[in-house]
From TrEMBL:
Annotated NAD-dependent epimerase/dehydratase domain residues: 3-196
Pfam families assigned to the protein according to its UniProt record, in alphabetical order: DoxX_3, Epimerase
Organism (species): Spartinivicinus poritis
Protein name in UniProt: NAD(P)H-binding protein
High-level lineage: Bacteria, Pseudomonadati, Pseudomonadota, Gammaproteobacteria, Oceanospirillales
Transmembrane helix among keywords: yes
């Protein structure tokens, strides 16, 4: 079967892609970046941005000889207002319209479990679900609960691992909020089996066999990561709501008002759906709890869980250093910088200008880093600037190495900080 899949490089999409390829399907993967895709003779890659594919015409050229479309594209948080509408409704709506024009009758949609009143994320997903069920001959809507894998994580599941790494774990209220997690590998198998359901209009609710509280789930994760029992810290739900609202603006971690609302209301599939799905597909998803108990974790799993919190701390630290350095330069007086610049043989007439220029450089790099513009390039320029300062001062003003307050020697730590951030800067 020829299958087009959007979001093929994502957490869920990549697992579905691997499952389809293992079964011998010809897969056309639509992604923004192909780096995360495997090399496979049955795989062809289409690099595109869904935000640029909002019309029927933009999809037609990709649908030649396609039998089925699987839409796995999605985002948990918006970079700018309207992203949910564009990526969860407008782009897949245009794709679906193009499918109908090309005579493609089967469309599988990876949606989300929840209520449209929970927030814009769920609302935009379910808006497209409703369109498919009304207009498509064979519309298969998949609404899983929380998706987990022992082989890796992304987004909310990475956050869960990071929370489980804390010796003191804060809980929203008493941590009794419930959800019904499913293993990523089971979800991929279910999607592949649903390819045979052409001709039906159905909503499926894949989930594991047990309902877990958030406290149980975090405890199971911590046990899997081989850490002792933590201290549980019940926290007023009102405080969590304030933190979620603040994080929605800062976007430090994938946690916002919508996810908190979904957590409050519970993320459990409708009654009897687990048994019905297992019977129809002759396949029963595994227990997440038992899988975590029986599957070993490795040192990289523990590294990732702990380094998760270091990434935003390093981000703020780098910004603080560069902006404060710029401010210090703008405020410096000739009495402060003259001894060092004299040692570099900089003529006094040019010293103030040089200090201002280096301060402008620090300010520019700090602001571009905040904006996230080409982060790898900016990190490289930061490294070069630190090396430049260190080489020039260390060679021509060696007394700066022995500054009582640290002085030049601190540049070594800053270089290590930049190296560490470069190594862990990618969230996926």
């Amino acid at each position: 079967m020829n299958i087009l899949i959007t979001g093929a490089a994502g957490f869920i999409g990549s697992a579905i892609l691997a499952e389809l390829l293992s079964q011998g399907h010809q897969v056309h993967a639509c992604v923004r970046n192909s780096r995360n895709l495997p090399k496979h003779p049955n795989l062809s890659v289409v690099c595109l941005n869904l935000a640029d594919c909002l019309t029927l015409e933009s999809w037609l050229s990709y649908l030649t000889h396609i039998d089925t479309v699987i839409n796995c594209a999605g985002i948990l948080t918006e970079t700018q207002p309207g992203d949910f509408e564009q990526l969860h409704y407008q782009a897949p709506h245009a794709l679906a319209e193009a499918c109908l024009q090309q005579g493609i009758k089967c469309f599988i949609q990876l949606s989300a479990l929840g209520n449209p009143t929970d927030g814009a994320f769920i609302k935009s997903k379910h808006q497209f679900d409703d369109y498919l069920l009304e207009h498509f001959p064979s519309a298969i809507i998949i609404r899983p609960s929380v998706v987990l894998s022992c082989r890796g994580s992304y987004g909310g599941t990475s956050l869960m691992r990071a929370i489980a790494s804390l010796p003191v774990i804060p809980l929203a209220g008493d941590g009794s909020q419930q959800f019904q997690p499913i293993l990523l590998e089971d979800l991929a198998t279910i999607v592949s089996r649903l390819l045979t359901y052409q001709g039906d209009k159905r909503v499926f609710y894949p989930a594991g066999p047990e309902v877990l509280s958030i406290k149980e789930f975090l405890g199971n994760l911590r046990q899997w990561l081989k850490w002792p029992e933590p201290y549980w810290l019940p926290t007023p739900l009102s405080l969590f709501k304030k933190l979620a609202t603040l994080n929605s603006k800062l976007n430090i971690v994938p946690f916002n008002d919508t996810l908190l609302t979904m957590l409050e209301q519970g993320n459990i599939i409708p009654d009897n759906e687990y048994q019905a799905l297992s019977k129809e597909l002759n396949y029963s998803p595994q227990s997440v709890k038992l899988t975590l108990l029986n599957t070993p974790s490795f040192v990289q799993d523990r590294w990732h869980a702990k380094l998760y919190w270091i990434r935003p701390v390093l981000w703020f630290a780098i910004i603080f250093i560069w902006l404060l350095s710029a401010v210090a330069g703008f405020m410096a007086t000739p009495e402060q910088f003259a001894p060092t610049l004299n040692a570099l043989a900089i003529p006094p007439a040019y010293q103030s200008t040089l200090v201002v220029l280096t301060s402008v450089l620090d300010l520019s790099l700090g602001m571009l880093f905040i904006m996230g513009w080409r982060p790898q390039l900016i990190l490289g320029l930061m490294v070069l600037s630190v090396l430049g300062y260190t080489f020039m001062l260390g060679l021509f003003a060696p007394f700066t190495w022995l500054d009582p307050l640290g002085g030049l020697i601190k540049n070594v730590a800053i270089l290590m900080m930049l190296w560490c951030y470069w190594a862990i800067k990618e969230a996926r």
